[in-house]
Amino acid sequence: MTNNIVAFDLECDTEPTFRRAVGYYETSTAGAYGDYAYYVAASQMIGSIEVAKELVRVDLEAGTYKTVGELTGYTNLINDMTYDRSAAKMYAISRIDDTRSALFTIDLKTAESSLVANLDRKFFTLAADYSGNLFAISFDGDLCSIDKTTGKVRVIGSTGQHPEKFQSMEFDHATRTLWWIATTRSLNESGTIELSECFVAKVNTSTGVITRCNDFGDNQIAGLYIPAFAAPDNCPTPVESPQAVAADKGDMRAVLSWTNPSETFGGEPLKTISKIEIKRDGVIVGNVTDAEPGKRSSFTDVIDDVTGATHTWLITAYNNNGAGAAAAVSAFVGRDIPAPATGITVERLTPNSARISWEPASAGVNGGWCDPESFTYTVVRYPDEKVIASDISDTECNDSGAEVSDTYYYAITTTSSCGTSEAAISPTVALGPKLGTPYTCEFSTDDFGQWTPYDGNSDGNSWVQMYINWAKADAAFISAAQYALDDWLISNLFELEPESSYKVKLNTMANGTHPLKFYLLSESDTSAPLQEIGSI
Questions:
Q1: For residue 81, which of 30, 180, 283, 504 is within the disulfide window of CB 3.0 to 4.6 Å?
Q2: Residue 508: enclosing H or E segment and its boundaries?
Q3: Are residues 60 and 204 in the same domain?
Q4: Quick one: 453 and 372 in the same domain?
């Protein structure tokens, strides 16, 4: 996932697993979240030097991005960025020569960069705490503070590491913890070779000492964002155990409930709550004015919309000092489209017929009410797109009309008064008249439908139809170089005469030694072949 924006669990017992959040493919060297979006500093090569190119704004929820503007005034790449919540400013750090970096601010509306100060050393990382204090790790591995007005650097302490390449640092503002996604170099056990490694660490902002957490493999993270709700120390902590329960039968109401905070963010007892503010999807929909610290409170939200949808509520406690940290809760409210059917089975009854059965969905595709008492089903057979059953209420039907020998599957859609589900797809089944002899197959797209691949060892590698360009021929193909094979290609049923002899001839090509065995089966049963025909 090089140059992708990814999501991962910061605290886990194993190497983090990346989930692609946004397919952003430009070369980038830094990123940070601020002003309700994630910002990325893209770069370009000018001669042999990588230099900042443009600022990109990324909508993480929509998965989209757009260029804000050109980044100018840099002679090198941007090493790291951080958003100062206290001043609503984005800061960046970039080298100006072989020994020093400079501190910049970046206008998030225009990408215009302004030099704050030239610093007395080079830095890899930059992070602002909730109060706006800047911290950075130098090329020598020292944790430092940087005065965001004058650029004065103060060494706090050594991390004991030798950073290199790309990395990033960010605060979890909810816990006031400084996290470092580090790329460092170290010696092997013999002390002779420098090794590069990546890991997650917590950094003590008073001493510079790190607590190493999880290894990160060989992945380099250029920008870190930790979603968190936070507030000043004298304001309330978030409400606890928030719940959102949608009303029955698609009614456009939701009941929110929670436990009010009993402390401030600074750990002092919370004496009073002036109000609890409720926002739905970013819009204030009400307040609770009789909330008491530590007690349960609730709010009923009546939604003026007939369309079912997933809504997110932010619940925020206030005291006389201002807003505390919000807590979020989401739920689907209203009428929901049915989820696809599950548990589909296909039973071949005769060579030409099959029974298809399924289990109805128990809820909507979003977990909401979908009027299950009105469910009807439509079953379509593929690849010939024949409607087998339409608007039936039963959860099974028979297909008795397969007139062409082929491998079929069925698409089942569920319809209720709330809408129609996406199709649920059945397993395949070979149906149709028995194949006769003499039989010739070139494994064209049409021919291949008379054969069923079976992945015997469930490794995801199986027979496929392929056109071999250089040979100008169709073929059944399987990749055998990197897999232990237990893969079958099984024909549809043949009409064979008893006490008769048959000859099998085929053309094969193989890159290496890959034995093929041929069997006579009964009803596609690979567990007990009737006869081993031979092998090549």
A1: 30
A2: none
A3: yes
A4: no
- pLDDT tens readout for residues 41-99: 999 999 999 999 999 998 887 788 899 999 999 999 999 999 999 899 999 999 999 99
| Co-location of 298 and 329 in the same domain | yes
- Neighbouring C-alpha atoms within 13 Å toward the C-beta of 322: 7
Output the six-digit token pair for 337.
């489209």
- Please state the φ and ψ torsions of residue 329, each to the nearest 5 degrees: -150, 145
CATH code (residue 117): 2.120.10.80
Q: How many domains does one find in the chain?
A: 4
Amino acid at 177: T
487 and 382 in a common domain:
no
Same-domain status, 30 and 101: yes
Q: Do 14 and 160 lie in a common domain?
A: yes
Q: Which residues make beta-bridge pairs with 256?
A: 244, 299
Secondary structure tally for the chain: helices H, strands E = 1, 40
What is the Cα–Cα distance from 399 to 351, expressed in whole angstroms? 11
The domain in which residue 364 lies consists of 342-431
Other CB atoms within a 10 A radius of the CB of residue 414 amount to: 26
- Rounded Cα distance between 245 and 103, Å, is 48
CA distance 421 to 415: 6
Q: Region 20-33: what's the mean pLDDT? A: 79
> For 348-367, what is each residue's pLDDT tens digit?
898 889 999 999 988 899 99
Q: Do 107 and 187 lie in a common domain?
A: yes
Bond from prior residue into 383 cis (ω within 30 degrees of 0): yes
